[in-house]
Amino acid sequence: MKIRLLAVLSAVFIALAPTADASPVEGLTVATDTHVDSPKVYWQDNNFTLKAG
Q1: Which of 3, 7, 36, 46 is deepest in the core (most CB within 10 A)?
Q2: pTM higher than 0.85
Q3: What are the strands, taking DSSP E only, across 1-53?
Q4: pLDDT for residue 6 is more than 90
Q5: Residue 50: closest CA among 30, 35, 22, 26
């Protein structure tokens, strides 16, 4: 009985789980020209700047 209830609750949870949205976001820095192992964050012009490479 407990296993059946757990299975039903698990199925409901999976069915109602939110889906991922991979829409593009404007204003983000995306490094595509080089391999980035660990980008570094710098404080520049009163804002954080991401520098890679």
Answers
A1: 36
A2: no
A3: 40-44, 47-51
A4: yes
A5: 30
